[in-house]
Protein backbone atom coordinates (compact mmCIF):
# COMPACT_ATOMS: atom_id res chain seq x y z
CA UNK A 1 0.00 0.00 0.00
CA UNK A 2 2.84 2.35 0.90
CA UNK A 3 4.57 1.63 -2.40
CA UNK A 4 1.32 2.36 -4.25
CA UNK A 5 0.88 5.65 -2.33
CA UNK A 6 4.49 6.64 -3.06
CA UNK A 7 4.04 5.83 -6.74
CA UNK A 8 0.77 7.79 -6.92
CA UNK A 9 2.29 10.78 -5.14
CA UNK A 10 5.25 10.75 -7.51
CA UNK A 11 2.85 10.65 -10.42
CA UNK A 12 0.92 13.64 -9.09
CA UNK A 13 4.12 15.60 -8.60
CA UNK A 14 5.22 14.75 -12.15
CA UNK A 15 1.81 15.80 -13.52
CA UNK A 16 1.95 19.06 -11.57
CA UNK A 17 5.41 19.81 -12.94
CA UNK A 18 4.19 19.06 -16.48
CA UNK A 19 1.26 21.45 -16.11
CA UNK A 20 3.55 24.14 -14.70
CA UNK A 21 5.86 23.69 -17.66
CA UNK A 22 2.95 23.91 -20.10
CA UNK A 23 1.81 27.17 -18.52
CA UNK A 24 5.26 28.74 -18.52
CA UNK A 25 5.03 30.40 -21.98
CA UNK A 26 2.10 32.55 -20.83
CA UNK A 27 3.66 33.51 -17.48
CA UNK A 28 4.36 37.07 -18.67
CA UNK A 29 0.63 37.74 -19.04
CA UNK A 30 -1.94 38.37 -16.34
CA UNK A 31 -5.50 39.09 -17.33
CA UNK A 32 -6.58 42.61 -16.52
CA UNK A 33 -2.97 43.80 -16.38
CA UNK A 34 -0.62 45.17 -19.07
CA UNK A 35 1.77 42.60 -20.57
CA UNK A 36 5.30 42.49 -19.19
CA UNK A 37 6.95 45.77 -20.14
CA UNK A 38 9.53 45.56 -22.92
CA UNK A 39 11.28 47.98 -25.27
CA UNK A 40 12.53 47.15 -28.76
CA UNK A 41 15.33 49.57 -29.60
CA UNK A 42 17.27 47.39 -32.06
CA UNK A 43 15.29 48.07 -35.28
CA UNK A 44 11.88 48.61 -33.66
CA UNK A 45 8.69 49.95 -35.25
CA UNK A 46 8.63 50.36 -39.03
CA UNK A 47 7.39 53.86 -39.84
CA UNK A 48 6.23 54.93 -43.30
CA UNK A 49 6.42 58.68 -43.95
CA UNK A 50 5.92 60.25 -47.36
CA UNK A 51 6.87 57.01 -49.07
CA UNK A 52 10.07 56.51 -47.04
CA UNK A 53 10.61 53.84 -44.39
CA UNK A 54 12.48 54.29 -41.15
CA UNK A 55 12.70 52.57 -37.78
CA UNK A 56 11.98 53.97 -34.33
CA UNK A 57 12.05 52.39 -30.84
CA UNK A 58 8.86 50.66 -29.75
CA UNK A 59 7.68 49.66 -26.30
CA UNK A 60 4.59 48.17 -24.72
CA UNK A 61 3.27 51.55 -23.57
CA UNK A 62 2.24 52.05 -27.23
CA UNK A 63 -0.52 49.45 -26.76
CA UNK A 64 -2.63 51.81 -24.63
CA UNK A 65 -5.04 54.07 -26.48
CA UNK A 66 -6.91 51.56 -28.61
CA UNK A 67 -8.32 48.06 -28.56
CA UNK A 68 -5.93 45.78 -30.35
CA UNK A 69 -4.28 42.48 -31.11
CA UNK A 70 -0.56 41.79 -30.89
CA UNK A 71 0.77 39.03 -33.12
CA UNK A 72 4.28 37.90 -32.20
CA UNK A 73 5.88 35.62 -34.76
CA UNK A 74 9.28 34.10 -35.32
CA UNK A 75 10.95 35.27 -38.53
CA UNK A 76 10.19 31.99 -40.28
CA UNK A 77 7.70 30.98 -42.94
CA UNK A 78 6.58 28.08 -40.73
CA UNK A 79 5.57 30.54 -37.99
CA UNK A 80 3.90 33.04 -40.30
CA UNK A 81 0.95 30.79 -41.11
CA UNK A 82 0.32 29.37 -37.62
CA UNK A 83 -2.23 32.06 -36.76
CA UNK A 84 -3.35 32.96 -40.28
CA UNK A 85 -7.05 32.29 -39.43
CA UNK A 86 -7.20 35.07 -36.81
CA UNK A 87 -5.37 37.47 -39.13
CA UNK A 88 -7.85 36.73 -41.92
CA UNK A 89 -10.79 37.16 -39.54
CA UNK A 90 -9.50 40.54 -38.35
CA UNK A 91 -8.96 41.74 -41.92
CA UNK A 92 -12.48 40.65 -42.87
CA UNK A 93 -14.00 42.44 -39.85
CA UNK A 94 -12.69 45.84 -41.01
CA UNK A 95 -12.51 47.32 -37.53
CA UNK A 96 -12.24 51.15 -37.43
CA UNK A 97 -8.61 52.24 -37.67
CA UNK A 98 -9.15 55.08 -35.20
CA UNK A 99 -10.18 52.64 -32.45
CA UNK A 100 -8.44 49.39 -33.33
CA UNK A 101 -4.76 48.56 -33.79
CA UNK A 102 -3.03 45.42 -35.01
CA UNK A 103 0.60 45.15 -33.92
CA UNK A 104 2.74 42.52 -35.63
CA UNK A 105 6.08 41.85 -33.96
CA UNK A 106 8.52 39.83 -36.06
CA UNK A 107 11.46 38.30 -34.25
CA UNK A 108 14.24 38.33 -36.84
CA UNK A 109 16.62 36.94 -34.22
CA UNK A 110 14.55 33.75 -34.50
CA UNK A 111 14.96 33.24 -38.24
CA UNK A 112 16.65 30.67 -40.42
CA UNK A 113 20.38 31.41 -40.46
CA UNK A 114 21.24 34.07 -43.00
CA UNK A 115 17.61 35.02 -43.73
CA UNK A 116 17.07 37.92 -41.29
CA UNK A 117 17.70 40.58 -43.92
CA UNK A 118 15.14 39.03 -46.27
CA UNK A 119 12.61 38.79 -43.43
CA UNK A 120 13.08 42.51 -42.68
CA UNK A 121 12.54 43.35 -46.34
CA UNK A 122 9.34 41.30 -46.31
CA UNK A 123 8.10 43.16 -43.22
CA UNK A 124 8.89 46.51 -44.87
CA UNK A 125 6.93 45.43 -47.93
CA UNK A 126 4.01 44.45 -45.70
CA UNK A 127 4.09 47.90 -44.10
CA UNK A 128 3.78 49.52 -47.52
CA UNK A 129 0.86 47.22 -48.36
CA UNK A 130 -0.91 47.76 -45.02
CA UNK A 131 0.23 51.10 -43.56
CA UNK A 132 -2.51 50.99 -40.91
CA UNK A 133 -0.87 47.96 -39.28
CA UNK A 134 1.89 48.52 -36.75
CA UNK A 135 4.94 46.40 -37.61
CA UNK A 136 7.83 45.92 -35.21
CA UNK A 137 11.11 44.23 -36.12
CA UNK A 138 12.88 42.73 -33.12
CA UNK A 139 16.50 41.88 -33.93
CA UNK A 140 17.40 40.81 -30.39
CA UNK A 141 14.46 38.62 -29.24
CA UNK A 142 13.60 41.30 -26.68
CA UNK A 143 9.84 40.61 -26.72
CA UNK A 144 10.21 36.84 -26.95
CA UNK A 145 12.47 36.90 -23.91
CA UNK A 146 10.40 39.37 -21.85
CA UNK A 147 7.16 37.51 -22.57
CA UNK A 148 8.76 34.07 -22.22
CA UNK A 149 7.41 32.87 -25.57
CA UNK A 150 8.34 29.67 -27.36
CA UNK A 151 10.91 30.13 -30.11
CA UNK A 152 9.85 29.28 -33.63
CA UNK A 153 6.19 29.93 -32.94
CA UNK A 154 3.37 32.47 -32.99
CA UNK A 155 1.57 34.14 -30.09
CA UNK A 156 -1.63 36.21 -29.92
CA UNK A 157 -2.37 38.84 -27.27
CA UNK A 158 -5.68 40.74 -27.16
CA UNK A 159 -5.67 43.99 -25.19
CA UNK A 160 -8.26 46.62 -24.31
CA UNK A 161 -7.98 50.37 -24.84
CA UNK A 162 -6.06 50.71 -21.57
CA UNK A 163 -3.44 48.24 -22.81
CA UNK A 164 -4.55 45.49 -20.43
CA UNK A 165 -4.46 41.84 -21.49
CA UNK A 166 -7.87 40.30 -22.14
CA UNK A 167 -6.72 37.13 -23.87
CA UNK A 168 -3.33 35.61 -24.63
CA UNK A 169 -2.10 32.39 -26.13
CA UNK A 170 1.35 31.22 -27.11
CA UNK A 171 0.70 28.94 -30.04
CA UNK A 172 -1.89 28.55 -32.83
CA UNK A 173 -5.49 29.38 -31.97
CA UNK A 174 -8.20 26.79 -32.45
CA UNK A 175 -11.30 27.69 -34.47
CA UNK A 176 -13.22 28.12 -31.23
CA UNK A 177 -10.55 30.48 -29.89
CA UNK A 178 -10.56 32.49 -33.12
CA UNK A 179 -14.33 32.92 -32.82
CA UNK A 180 -14.03 33.83 -29.15
CA UNK A 181 -11.37 36.46 -29.85
CA UNK A 182 -13.51 38.01 -32.57
CA UNK A 183 -16.53 38.13 -30.26
CA UNK A 184 -14.37 39.74 -27.58
CA UNK A 185 -13.05 42.36 -30.00
CA UNK A 186 -16.55 43.20 -31.25
CA UNK A 187 -17.75 43.53 -27.66
CA UNK A 188 -14.90 45.88 -26.69
CA UNK A 189 -15.43 48.01 -29.78
CA UNK A 190 -19.21 48.09 -29.43
CA UNK A 191 -20.26 49.26 -25.96
CA UNK A 192 -23.80 47.95 -26.61
CA UNK A 193 -22.65 44.42 -27.37
CA UNK A 194 -22.50 41.86 -24.51
CA UNK A 195 -19.08 40.43 -23.76
CA UNK A 196 -18.74 36.74 -24.65
CA UNK A 197 -18.99 34.08 -21.99
CA UNK A 198 -16.65 31.12 -21.67
CA UNK A 199 -12.94 31.67 -21.29
CA UNK A 200 -13.09 35.46 -21.68
CA UNK A 201 -9.85 37.20 -20.70
CA UNK A 202 -8.11 33.87 -20.27
CA UNK A 203 -4.37 33.42 -20.64
CA UNK A 204 -3.41 30.20 -22.33
CA UNK A 205 -0.04 28.56 -22.68
CA UNK A 206 1.36 26.48 -25.52
CA UNK A 207 -1.20 24.03 -26.94
CA UNK A 208 -4.03 25.74 -25.06
CA UNK A 209 -2.91 24.91 -21.50
Quickly list its features:
209 residues; alpha/beta; 8-stranded mixed beta sheet; 6 helices; 33% helix; globular
Characterize the structure shown.
With 209 residues, this protein is of the alpha/beta class. It has helices spanning 2-23, 77-80, 84-93, 116-129, 142-146, 175-189; strands spanning 39-49, 52-59, 67-75, 100-111, 134-138, 154-159, 165-170, 203-204. Helix 6 links the parallel strand 7 and strand 8 (203-204). Helix 3 runs parallel beside helix 6 (175-189).
> Rg from C-alpha positions?
19 Å
Order of helices and strands: HEEEHHEHEHEEHE
* Main sheet summary: 8 strands, mixed
Q: In which order are the strands of the major sheet placed?
A: 2-1-5-4-3-6-7-8
- What spatial form do the alpha-carbon principal axes imply? globular
In helices, the fraction of residues equals 25-40%
Structural class: alpha/beta
What is the β-strand count?
Answer: 8
The helix count comes to 6
Distance between the termini: 33 Å
* Percent of residues in beta strands: 25-35%
Ranges with pLDDT <50 over ≥5 residues? 1-26
Residue-averaged pLDDT = 84
Amino acid sequence: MRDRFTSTAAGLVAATLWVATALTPAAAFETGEPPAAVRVADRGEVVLEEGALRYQPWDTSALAGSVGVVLHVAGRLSAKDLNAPIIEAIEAARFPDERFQTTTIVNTDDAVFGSAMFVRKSVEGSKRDAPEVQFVVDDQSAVQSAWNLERGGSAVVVHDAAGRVRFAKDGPLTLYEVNHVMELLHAMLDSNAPEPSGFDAQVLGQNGH
